[in-house]
Amino acid sequence: MASFRALVVDKAHDGVAVAIRDWSTDRLMDGEVTIRVEYSSVNFKDGLASTADGRVVRSYPLILGVDLAGTVVESADARHAVGDKVIAHGYDIGVAHHGGFAELARVPAGWVVPLPTGLTTRHAMAIGTAGFTAALSVARLEAAGLTPDAGRVIVTGASGGVGSTAVDILAARGYTVAASTGSTDAHDFLRDLGATEILDRAETSAESGRPLERPRWSGAIDAVGGPTFAYLLRTMEYGASIAISGNTGGAPYASTVFPFILRAANVLGIDSVALPLNRRIEIWQRLATDLRPPHLDTTIAHEVSLDETPDQLTAILRGATRGRTIVRINN
Ligand SMILES: NC(=O)c1ccc[n+]([C@@H]2O[C@H](COP(=O)([O-])OP(=O)(O)OC[C@H]3O[C@@H](n4cnc5c(N)ncnc54)[C@H](OP(=O)(O)O)[C@@H]3O)[C@@H](O)[C@H]2O)c1
Questions:
Q1: Whose C-alpha lies nearest to ligand 1, atom 25?
Q2: Exposed (0-12), middle (13-18) or buried (19+): which is 17, by Cβ within 10 Å?
Q3: 23 C-alpha to center of ligand 1: Å?
Q4: Looking only at Cα atoms, what is the longest distance across the chain?
């Protein structure tokens, strides 16, 4: 493949421009593994990367897409043979290294995860970075002691990629799940995934002068941050943990030390980007087995073409997407 199609962001006189372009293989960046991309997916970070003020892209022009899954077509690393099915996401992909919205990708071997048995490349991209982050959040909460009989677990930004996959994984593991959403049309969607209680985003993002409120959550997965994170700190049960991964609701938050010194609250920072490869492989293995979201194909994910992807990038920044969006590349 001397030239291939790619969705590229580049500097333009009034900011940045995003367009599908023909790209040549000699313009791929360094890496030991070249992959024929079968599927990618749309994440909030891809939306940010497509705008001038998103502040995530560190190299222009750049092929967008923080996620990719496909088949190895060239390899200079013994861990990955031609014909192997693989996944790559995070690290510099889609921000400083050409990403997954392209027919071909070349990445360092140390970023490549073998596709676990039981998942197709399409399944892997239905999960993608957002679903991986949800699974990592569940794994961290359970490692901190959370069990299904502990009480109710809250998921914020529940209709989004991280949130919907988290609701699905938790419900399948027997947790009682409360979903916080600002999308009034997503209530049935969230109940179908297994949420038994729906809270309005207005309640969970409200500011309060009180340092503590009635404790009600035995665990929390928060992809929203800002005032929502402050709400969670005020309302966690004694000794409970919050897995925080996102900031769609803002970055700053106002709180006090009281959730920590009076309720023994734990905050688990969740990062999928720089997570070491061995831990990444372990979470993907679990996504194919005990952390597998059961409603991926039927409810959570829908598919678009590469040509339809720019519209999805603007939609995710407006909060106008639901669940996960798979991008079909070579299929
Ligand atoms: N730490 C990591 O490694 C990591 C990995 C993946 C994602 N993230 C971050 O996690 C967040 C979610 O990513 P995603 O891909 O799941 O995005 P997404 O699909 O757009 O979901 C985000 C959800 O947040 C809620 N939301 C949107 N705007 C909001 C606002 N102004 N105030 C409060 N809630 C709002 C919406 O849910 P409702 O309509 O249901 O309220 C939306 O669906 C992003 O900040 C992303 O950068 C971090």
A1: 157
A2: middle
A3: 31
A4: 63
Whether residue 56 contacts residue 48, with contact meaning beta carbons closer than 8 Å, is answered with: yes
Q: Is the CB of 162 under 6 A from ligand 1?
A: yes
Q: What are phi and psi of 278, to 5 degrees?
A: -60, -40
Q: Is 85 in the pocket of ligand 1 (CB under 6 A)?
A: no
145: left (phi over 0), alpha (psi -120 to 50) or beta: left
- Is there an atom of ligand 1 within 6 Å of 299 CB? no
Say which residue the tokens 């677990």 belong to: 153
* C-beta of 164 in contact with ligand 1 (< 6 A): no
Ligand 1 atom closest to Cα of residue 133: 5
Question: Does pLDDT of 330 surpass 90?
Answer: no
Tell me if 249 CB under 6 Å of ligand 1: yes
1 has a pLDDT exceeding 80: no
Outline where the chain has alpha helix (H): 44-49, 121-143, 161-172, 187-193, 201-204, 227-235, 258-261, 277-287, 309-317
Q: pLDDT tens, 70-126?
A: 999 999 999 999 999 999 999 999 999 999 999 999 999 999 999 999 999 999 999
| CB distance 159 to ligand 1 below 6 Å | yes
pLDDT digits (tens, 9 = 90+) for 245-286: 999 999 999 999 999 999 999 999 999 999 999 999 999 999
Q: Which two tokens stand for residue 78?
A: 């013994």
- Ligand 1 center to 91 CA (angstroms): 19
Interacting residues of 255 by C-beta distance below 8 A, sequence separation 6+ = 211, 229, 230, 233, 234
